[in-house]
């Protein structure tokens, strides 16, 4: 019986504790180059997972608009109700993931995983 419970617990995502839910990380500000902002860790983590899930590993990558649309189905509804603020979060994570994401020098600009 305990074996069944352990596998069931692994299948369900763990809900963050109150402390984890209010934890913050410092990131570059999308709107003001050179400025840093404190942002919510669970939202940052959820968007990072979503973004890395949808970006292709080879060129051609996704345009910014394509990236914004592609992440929506992967976002938890409790953190991004109706996709609220998803574009800002996608851009923030994309800027912070420089070692994981490459920008292609095309028009329009496209991004893919490294």
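^ Assign residues to that structure.
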């Amino acid at each position: 019986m305990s074996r069944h419970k352990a596998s069931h617990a692994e299948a369900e995502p763990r809900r963050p504790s109150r402390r984890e839910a209010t934890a913050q990380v410092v990131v570059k500000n999308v709107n003001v180059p050179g400025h840093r902002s404190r942002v919510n860790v669970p939202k940052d983590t959820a968007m990072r997972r979503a973004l890395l899930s949808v970006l292709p590993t080879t060129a051609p990558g996704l345009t910014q608009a394509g990236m914004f649309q592609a992440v929506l189905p992967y976002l938890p509804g409790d953190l991004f109700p109706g996709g609220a603020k998803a574009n800002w979060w996608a851009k923030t994570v994309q800027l912070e993931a420089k070692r994981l994401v490459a920008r292609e020098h095309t028009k329009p600009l496209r991004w893919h995983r490294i």
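The longest strand covers residues 24-28.
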